[in-house]
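User: Sequence recovery, please. Input:
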């Protein structure tokens, strides 16, 4: 039986693993997709202390190597549930399960979908949620980015390195991104903005060819495009744990800055929990807090 099972190998989970191993505890980290979570898909990261400009993928690889070198085990599997057993928990994956005395949930958050016709069918065929992953496919093409936050505006700027024209469509009359990010996007001659409008349908047989846009004044139009990047925020996927811990109405694990869940022995770290600020630095901070809370819990149950 492991001391600590960590679900998610993003910055929160990897930091928790580093702290767990440095405290002398055995740890297994489950990961269902790629190491690094959201930062693996980020381009340049400029807000992580001591790293004025680092690629997200390089930072996530460095965190992974550090955790692995310290002795964390990895289970590349999707966790489907946690059940209580004698002395701890059984963390069940699709292919493998591991028993642990404590669990840290660090599942992060996933790209929200628009939920419009054509979207699911055309994912990977012109519908993308990752500018860094798919931008290079759109060299000299015309594309659309949807959203008004930091992700959408940063994606739009990033994509101008490839696309000849980027149309940014946002449902309000103002962006919610940081001022500096907005200024950079608006001064880019390849970016055109369409405000007060929603994408209501994505059109195409084998690949995206156009989108239907509904303007808030009631007018609709079909806009031809080679691709659409959707950056409308993120949401958690914690339903598999709902039988043991409380989630809020949006599906985030209920917890405060101490990273304690409503179940003794289960802790939570990073974007998947209720919190004000979801940033890389707050995720690594949570990983630290949750791991140290788990270590204190182990000391209590073993004394
Ligand atoms: P976000 O800030 O939540 O913005 C999501 C945007 O999508 C909002 O403009 C929202 O519109 C729009 N939206 C949501 N649902 C929609 C729908 N169904 N249809 C159309 N538009 C929809 O998300 P984010 O940009 O992914 O950023 C998430 C967090 O990470 C934020 O705290 C952000 O500051 C942070 N972040 C930071 C950086 C950085 O520091 N460099 C980079 C990326 C992200 P409304 O405005 O109308 O609600």
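Assistant: Recovered sequence (303 residues):
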């Amino acid at each position: 039986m492991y001391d600590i099972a960590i679900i998610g190998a993003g910055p929160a989970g990897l930091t928790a693993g580093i702290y767990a191993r440095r405290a002398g505890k055995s740890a297994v980290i489950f990961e269902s997709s790629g190491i690094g979570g959201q930062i693996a898909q980020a381009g340049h990261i400029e807000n992580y202390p001591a790293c004025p400009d680092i690629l997200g993928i390089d930072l996530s690889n460095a965190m992974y190597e550090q955790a692995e070198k310290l002795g964390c085990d990895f289970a590349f599997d999707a966790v489907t549930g946690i059940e209580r057993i004698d002395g701890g928990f059984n963390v069940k994956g699709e292919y493998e399960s591991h028993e642990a005395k404590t669990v840290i949930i660090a599942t992060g958050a996933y790209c929200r979908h628009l939920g419009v016709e054509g979207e699911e069918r055309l994912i990977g065929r012109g519908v993308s949620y990752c500018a860094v992953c798919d931008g290079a496919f759109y060299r000299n093409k015309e594309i659309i980015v949807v959203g008004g936050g930091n992700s959408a505006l940063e994606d739009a700027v990033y994509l101008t390195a490839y696309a000849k024209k980027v149309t940014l469509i946002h449902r309000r009359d103002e962006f919610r991104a940081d001022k500096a990010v907005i200024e950079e996007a608006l001064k880019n001659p390849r970016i055109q903005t369409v405000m007060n409008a929603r994408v209501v349908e994505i059109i195409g047989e084998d690949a995206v060819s156009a989108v239907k846009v509904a303007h808030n004044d009631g007018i609709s139009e079909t806009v031809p495009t080679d691709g659409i990047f959707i950056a409308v925020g993120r949401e958690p996927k914690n339903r598999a744990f709902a039988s043991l811990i409380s989630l809020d109405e949006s599906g985030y694990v209920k917890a405060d800055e101490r990273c304690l869940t409503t179940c003794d022995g289960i802790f939570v770290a990073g974007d998947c929990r209720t919190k004000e600020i979801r940033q890389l630095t707050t995720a690594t901070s949570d990983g630290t807090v949750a791991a140290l809370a788990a270590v204190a819990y182990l000391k209590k149950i073993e004394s």
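The chain has a mean pLDDT of 95.
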